[in-house]
Amino acid sequence: METRYYILTPEGFPIDEEIDHETPNQAWNEFEEWKKKFERQGYYSTVSRGERIKILLNKLKDCCELRTRS
Q1: Contact status, residue 36 vs residue 54, Cβ threshold 8 Å
Q2: What contacts 64, CB < 8 A, 6 or more positions away?
Q3: Cα distance between residue 66 and residue 58, in whole Å
Q4: Beta bridge partners of 46
Q5: Bridge-partner residues for 41, per DSSP?
Q6: Is the distance from CB of 60 to CB of 42 less than 8 angstroms?
Q7: How does pLDDT run across 8-24, given as a tens digit for each residue?
Q8: Among 35, 40, 48, 65, which is least packed by CB within 10 angstroms?
Q9: What is the pTM of this model?
Q10: CA 38 to centroid of chain Cα atoms
Q11: What is the mean pLDDT of residues 30-36?
């Protein structure tokens, strides 16, 4: 079985539940497209330990995680 790649949000959810990628680069390219949804507000917003957190878009990749599935 081949390895597939996907990206988790800062909350630990896949950025796309239906699509896995053949390479890490393809997964990160999808991340860049997904990140564009937040450009108008200028940050990604999430809640951690009951507090709202704003993650600047230039720091968002550091808060996401590349994962694999077989």
Answers
A1: no
A2: 7, 8, 9, 10, 15, 31
A3: 17
A4: 53
A5: none
A6: no
A7: 999 999 999 888 999 99
A8: 40
A9: 0.89
A10: 12
A11: 97
DSSP 22: S
Cα dihedral 66, 60, 55, 37 sign:
negative
What's the rounded Cα separation, in Å, for the pair 50 and 40?
25
Residue located via tokens 């995680």:
65
CA distance 35 to 62: 13
Q: If you count them, how many residues does the chain have?
A: 70
Q: Give the closest residue to 2 by CA, choosing from 26, 35, 31.
A: 26
Maximum Cα–Cα distance for the chain, whole Å?
Answer: 41
43 token code pair: 């940050």
pLDDT computed for residue 17 by the predictor: 87
